[in-house]
């Protein structure tokens, strides 16, 4: 079994910029900070996928027709009380991002994968887990991020935290 998800994965300099800019909010939340190298935007979380079905997951993504880069503007942080997650959130989501998520979801459902969707998709970057306190919500300076590809990522739990490995990338510009 492999624990898989699709994500927009920023360049390392973007991850470091987010980490540095939001360190005060992470500390104020009392949560456990994620390492900068793990910061990303999850598109769809698949969970445990049997090894023989990984090729099917890749095929589902191969069928998605991208229509250009995705530009996001993250402008506030939120503590999601139910999950205890501190997230950097974009108040608006570009239509190209919605089309990508919908295309992936449609193809995965057609291929008989179970996709849990408890709420409307909100682009966000998880900054910390086990956050216990509210933090300043609106960022003085929004963080802009442009993604030109999306990735299939494997998550492995280690004693030092989650380790993410990119298995495959797809360009959003075709």
Report what the structure shows.
- With 174 residues, the chain is α+β, with helices and mostly antiparallel strands.
- The chain is 25% helix and 41% strand.
- The strands form two sheets. The chain has a five-stranded antiparallel sheet with strand order 2-6-5-4-7, covered by helices on one side. A four-stranded antiparallel sheet has the order 3-1-8-9, with helices on one face.
- The longest helix has 18 residues, at 12-29.
- The chain is globular, with a radius of gyration of 16 Å.
- The mean pLDDT is 91.
What separation lies between the terminal Cα atoms?
Answer: 32 Å
Q: Look at the helices and sheets and give the structural class.
A: alpha+beta
Q: What's the rounded overall pLDDT mean?
A: 91
The tally of strands reads 9
Identify the strand order in the major beta sheet: 2-6-5-4-7
Give the amount of beta strand, in percent. 35-45%
Profile the largest sheet.
5 strands, antiparallel
Name the overall outline.
Answer: globular
Radius of gyration: 16 Å
Secondary structure layout plus pairing:
Blueprint: E1 2-8, H1 12-29, E2 32-33, E3 41-49, H2 54-62, E4 70-80, E5 85-89, H3 95-110, E6 124-129, E7 138-147, E8 149-158, E9 161-171
Antiparallel strand pairs: 1-3, 1-8, 2-6, 4-5, 4-7, 5-6, 8-9
């Amino acid at each position: 079994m492999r624990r898989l998800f699709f994500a927009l994965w920023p360049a390392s300099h973007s991850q470091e910029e987010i980490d540095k800019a939001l360190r005060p909010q992470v500390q104020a939340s009392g949560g456990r900070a994620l390492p900068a190298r793990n910061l990303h935007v999850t598109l769809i979380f698949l969970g445990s996928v049997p090894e023989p079905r990984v090729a099917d997951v890749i095929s589902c993504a191969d069928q998605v027709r991208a229509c250009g880069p995705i530009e996001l503007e993250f402008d506030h942080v939120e503590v999601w009380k139910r999950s205890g997650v501190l997230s950097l959130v974009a108040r608006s989501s570009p239509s190209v991002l919605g089309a990508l998520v919908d295309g992936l979801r449609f193809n995965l459902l057609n291929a008989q994968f179970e996709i849990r969707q408890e709420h409307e998709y909100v682009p966000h970057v998880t900054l910390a887990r086990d956050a216990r306190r509210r933090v300043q919500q609106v960022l003085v300076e929004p963080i802009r991020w442009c993604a030109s590809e999306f990735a299939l990522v494997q998550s492995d739990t280690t004693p030092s935290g989650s380790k993410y490995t990119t298995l495959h990338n797809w360009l959003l510009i075709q």
